[in-house]
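Q: How would the structure tokens look for this protein?
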Amino acid sequence: MKDTERRPRVNALLSMNQDFFIKSQRGCKADCAELDQQLTDAFTEKETMERQAASCVSKLNTAQRLVSGLADENERWANTVVDLRDLSLRLIGNCMLASAFVGYASPFSARLRQDLWQQVWTADLKQREIPMTNGIDPLTVLASDADVAGWMNEGLPADRVSVENASVVTSCSRWPLLVDPQQQGARWIKQRIGEELTVIQLSNSKWLDKVIFCVQTGSQLLIEALQDEIDAILEPLLSRAVIKRGRGPMFLKLGPDEIEYDSKFQLYLQSKLPNPHFRPEVSAQCTVVNFIVTPEGLEEQILALVVNCEKPQLEEEKQILVRRQNEFKVILSRLEDELLSQLSAADPDTILDNIPLIEGLEKTKHTSREIALQVAEAEKTEVEINHSRELYRSVASEGSMLFFLVVELSTVQHMYQYSLDAFNTFLQKAIDRTQVRRTRLALTLQVFRRCIAERDIPTRPGFQETDDVKERTERLIASIRLTIFRWVCH
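A: Here is the predicted structure in token form.
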């Protein structure tokens, strides 16, 4: 066959082979691309599964941390839920008793208060079949342990009457009027509010300008040393005769002019008279609170004074311990509130992803455990300190009895008027005089023993310094009696 005839056939075969190779190549490339895509998809799916597995493990760990953090609270919260359900049925009677206590019991003494809410009001609520908690104490309705601890850190005496008074002052809707001859209530309010409190007396010059300024700026005002008759210009303020025009600000007519009234304004009134005779309108406009010192409260104060003079380190430890325990109660209450607030605000669907919440929960629980341990240790230490302080209880009881005995002299003759500050001054003098005598005796014994040691004279086995606590308390009582007697009879 000639080349001319063979060449077209060869070209045709070459073209066919080339087309076949191109098609095969394209098919291989397509298969390779498909395989590459499958491999990529497989790697992507693998990474996705690994991320999901890691996320599941992380959520599992987070769930374990969350469950572990809340495990300790489960039993307490379960009991709290039961108590709240029971309280919801008995809340009406509890609130009625607490409201009556705030509105009507505060002017009276401790015995009358107790008779009112225990014998009269509680019996009346039960007779009317109003649901209430058995053995309910109005103080538990008005204040929590954290509230009471905070008040004590602010200088409130620790006796029950003072705590009741503080709960009334912080709960009443009317202006509190303190019957406070010993000024314990005024001192507590000043320390509680601090520099934000404006203190005036109606005998001061330009006192009305300060009242107007406080009303307009929403400040807190304490008017001290009120007499039986309160200046009539304060009548609109005491009765809260506020005028409101439309949606604008509120006004109060104080004196000849109308002034703008800020709803944040808070007024405290205080009288140093032991038995003031206010007009009936004042008792209706204000909540009268009897802050007169009680024998129990004064005994605790005198005990602190005596121990501070006799064993200053012991009393300092006591004060630090009480302050720390009160702070612990406040911190624990705040931590519990923060924990519940965080849990209630968390989204249930994403709570396991909320790492700051879990870390905050763990930190809160860790702090709570540390505080609980410190509270347990502090309670043990407090028992030991109280045992040492109780050795001087007889001196404190004697001092409290003498003060109320001296106060009763005013019923014999009105000229016998004695303040607690003056009594404490002479009480301190009596302790100091006894301290001087004890020091001289100790020096004498020390010199005597030194002379015996130098001359090598044997001493009797039973010889010791007569500085024991029992003899010391007897001498303190005798010195206090003599000092107060001389003061009164001077």
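The radius of gyration is 40 Å.

The longest helix spans residues 3-105.

Upvote if useful.
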